[in-house]
Amino acid sequence: MDFGGTPVIHRARRERTAAALTTGNRRGEADELVFAAVTTAPEIAGSEPTGPAAGTTAGIAGVNRRIADELGVRETQVAAAVDLLDGGSTVPFIARYRKEVTGGLDDAQLRTLEERLHYLRELDERRVSIIESIRGQGKLDEALHRQLLLAETKARLEDIYLPYKPKRRTKAQIAREAGHEPVADALINDPTTDPAQYSAEQLDGARAILVERFAEDADLVGELRELMWNRGQVTSTVRPGKEEAGAKFADYFEFSEPFDKLPSHRILALLRGRRRRC
Question: What domains can be seen in the chain, in order of their start residue?
Answer without folding.
Answer: 63-164 (1.10.10.650), 171-225 (no CATH), 232-276 (no CATH)
